[in-house]
């Protein structure tokens, strides 16, 4: 090497070292920008494919209603798949939360195709379930493979999984800001990991951009009338939030109670979705409507357009609890949107606020209470419905969060800060330990 080359190398090292000393966050930013780009591309593409195939399955089922009679068969096949080949990934979202709190083995990649197939079976044959659980599990399983490839340590792996959850949630619902905060907020109630804030936001935004590039469609909602911010509308919002919180707690308790009942009474796991499938299929044919199965998006949209009857939310809750407790795959969140929006719309019978606003408040507030993620749900309300309703949405989410008590749809969610001083002894406990 010539003297000139040695001098040039020394000069480059000097200025490089000076630059990184002056901007110490730059290596971190470049590292996680690269990783977030990979997560965004992979998770955004997976979400787009999932959304498109889910829409196809829904349309096909609605045009061939006889398929609902085969829901028990589909449930049996899903049960067999998980019982013999997928016991290590059966915990689903709770497995993701456990690995963020205490990293263990890399999440098996098979979680992604297994939960995708299981969810498609649920929707194709007429179960009542959502899509967030599938999106999060696909995102986590796909992204966690980067841990080996990039040789990430435990702390980096935690950030990776938070970013994956943010990307999956943000891309499947078209709400990247809410997705980012959900990833930061969901695994530890009352505390947020700020060391993951840049990767979470970057991954969520990039995944949403990629999903949109694939032209996957998201549902749009509109609130026609938002009252002026005054004392009475605020008071009515608090009252609505209390009802939404009680509803969220009821849903969480019911789904855990029914899940335990299925397990204690039916020892062979593949038979549980058979029984659940029979109950759902018989109920659909007896009622003569598919209103309470699948995602229920048309009914959610309808709740913003007119006042709905009070029983809609109750039927959706029952159908969803039976479907998911029996072992069918899918998420709880979209059914929670349905339950909250229809309950809110019906509450306009008693609470003098516009039904569209109450539907929007219920849409996110029941979800906030059931997942203990009020900040993410506030942002989701603003992203979906516009900033004009932000105060009312925030009130409903906060009050629902407080009144839902020590309940969650995620049993491995950990309590970082209790909701009030009476429960300080529950710090750092999972809901499964309560």
Tell me about this structure.
The protein has 434 residues and is mainly alpha-helical. The chain contains 17 helices and two strands. It has helices at residues 3-22, 26-63, 71-85, 93-101, 111-125, 132-149, 154-173, 176-185, 197-213, 231-265, 272-287, 297-303, 311-325, 333-347, 355-371, 374-385, 390-403, and strands spanning 188-189, 414-415. A two-stranded parallel ribbon has the order 1-2. The model has no long low-confidence stretch (mean pLDDT 93).
Counted by DSSP, the helix tally is 17
Q: What is the spatial order of strands in the main beta sheet?
A: 1-2
Tell me what portion of residues adopts beta-strand conformation: under 5%
Please outline the major beta sheet: 2 strands, parallel
Low-confidence stretches: none
Task: From the alpha carbons, calculate the radius of gyration and give it in angstroms.
Answer: 23 Å
Termini separation comes to: 68 Å
Which series of helices and strands comes N to C?
Answer: HHHHHHHHEHHHHHHHHHE
The amount of helix comes to: 55-70%
Number of strands: 2
């Amino acid at each position: 090497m010539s003297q000139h080359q040695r001098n040039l190398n020394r000069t480059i090292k000097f200025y490089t070292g000076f630059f990184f000393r002056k901007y110490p966050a730059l290596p971190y930013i470049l590292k996680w920008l690269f990783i977030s780009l990979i997560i965004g591309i992979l998770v955004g593409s997976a979400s787009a494919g999932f959304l498109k195939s889910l829409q196809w399955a829904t349309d096909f089922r609605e045009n061939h209603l006889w398929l609902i009679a085969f829901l028990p068969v589909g449930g049996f096949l899903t049960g067999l798949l998980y019982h013999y080949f997928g016991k290590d990934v059966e915990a689903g979202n709770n497995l993701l939360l456990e690995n963020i709190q205490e990293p263990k083995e890399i999440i098996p990649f098979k979680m992604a195709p297994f939960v995708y197939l299981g969810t498609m079976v649920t929707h194709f044959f007429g179960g009542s379930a959502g899509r967030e659980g599938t999106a999060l599990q696909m995102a986590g399983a796909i992204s966690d493979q980067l841990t080996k490839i990039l040789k990430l340590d435990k702390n980096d792996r935690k950030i990776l999984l938070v970013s994956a959850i943010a990307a999956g949630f943000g891309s499947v619902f078209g709400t990247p800001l809410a997705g980012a905060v959900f990833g930061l907020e969901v695994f530890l109630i009352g505390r947020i990991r700020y060391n993951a804030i840049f990767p979470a936001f970057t991954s969520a935004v990039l995944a949403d951009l990629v999903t949109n590039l694939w032209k996957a469609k998201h549902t749009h909602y509109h609130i026609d009338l938002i009252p002026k911010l005054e004392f009475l509308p605020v008071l009515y919002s608090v009252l609505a939030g209390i009802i939404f919180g009680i509803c969220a707690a009821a849903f969480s308790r019911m789904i855990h109670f029914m899940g335990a009942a299925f397990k204690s009474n039916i020892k062979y796991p593949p038979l549980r979705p058979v029984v659940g499938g029979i109950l759902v299929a018989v109920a659909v044919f007896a009622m003569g409507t598919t209103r309470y199965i699948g995602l229920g998006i048309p009914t959610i949209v309808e709740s913003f357009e007119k006042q709905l009857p009070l029983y809609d939310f109750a039927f959706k809750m029952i159908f969803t609890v039976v479907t998911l407790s029996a072992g069918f795959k899918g998420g709880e969140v979209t059914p929670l949107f349905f339950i909250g929006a229809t309950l809110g719309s019906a509450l306009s019978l008693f609470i003098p606020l516009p039904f569209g606003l109450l539907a929007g408040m219920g849409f996110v507030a029941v979800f906030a209470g059931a997942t203990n993620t009020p900040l993410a749900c506030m942002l989701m309300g603003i992203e979906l419905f516009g900033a004009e309703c932000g105060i009312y949405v925030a009130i409903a989410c906060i009050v629902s969060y407080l009144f839902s008590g020590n309940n969650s749809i995620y049993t491995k969610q950990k309590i970082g800060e209790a909701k009030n001083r009476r429960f300080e002894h529950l710090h750092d406990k999972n809901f499964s330990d309560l």
